[in-house]
Amino acid sequence: MKFGGTSLANWPRFLMAADIIAESSKLEPVATVLSAPATITNALLEMVDLAVEGKSYQAVVQHIDTVFNTLYAQASEELLAPAQQSLLQEKLNAQMLQWKHKLEGICLLGECPDSVRAAIVVSGERLSAALMEQVMLAKGITSAQLDPVSLFLAHGQPLESVVDINVSKPRFSVLPLNDYRVWVMPGFTAADAHGKIVTLGRNGSDYSAAVLAACLNASSCEIWTDVDGVYNTDPRVVTDAKLLAQLSYQEAMELSYFGAKVLHPKTIAPIAQYHIPCYIKNSFNPSAPGTL
Length: 292
Ligand code: ADP
Ligand code: ASP
Ligand code: MG
Prior knowledge:
The protein has 292 residues and is α/β, with parallel strands linked by helices. 46% of the residues lie in helices and 13% in strands.
């Protein structure tokens, strides 16, 4: 089950996603892939770009800090124990310190290697995953994280890598998969053969979910987003766009290849190869049937 940025944008939405995962986990163990909350990946990229230009990035850092602190504060009012909030806070502080050091280096150099940029921009997904793990635990559900760096081996450019499923899949066989009801993985990222963090390209968490589904022999792959499913065109642009009950892998590939943002183009190959049914569902309207 993959949840995109808009489905995790603030605490009420994050909780809606958590409820959907919790409900599903009553029937079957769930592996979930999370995006960064909306605006975070863009903010991280902007922060790096400003550092390269030698401009002040403090306002952007502040925005990211506020988004996560607000999430933690509201989650704690409703659900998390004080110790859980402190743990998340410590993770965020450690992350901020890492960014600070890297950004100072980037500022001095006036440039940022792609591998450094990759390591910075994937952090939003990590913070999402850490929060979801704690939310599941607070709900009394056994939960642990899947680390994409040690599990997904990727090739290609640091900012646009492709996962080698043949090498990655056997790595899952050593995990105590039955010990936890909900596994949480940060989307959008993997590591290269040297263990260096890479990204899977913008919007790449859909692809993370497809790869994870293939690696786990999942019974299905669910992409939870902010529209009722796949339409014949972008429903935010064309008001009478038609919702499709189902489409073939080939049709989905064509739609995404020609720009339908609802699915990252790389998503289809792994689920088609491993014959995994894929549902596109609306986290704002979970009872709608979605698109198969
Ligand atoms: P997420 O944050 O969940 O990954 P995205 O913004 O990446 O969500 O993708 C969902 C968006 O894709 C929708 O809000 C919609 O505007 C856009 N979209 C473009 N083409 C289509 C289409 N054919 N069917 C459904 N949504 C589409
Ligand atoms: N957060 C990343 C992005 O905005 C990946 C994703 O959400 O799919 O590109
Ligand atoms: Mg997306």
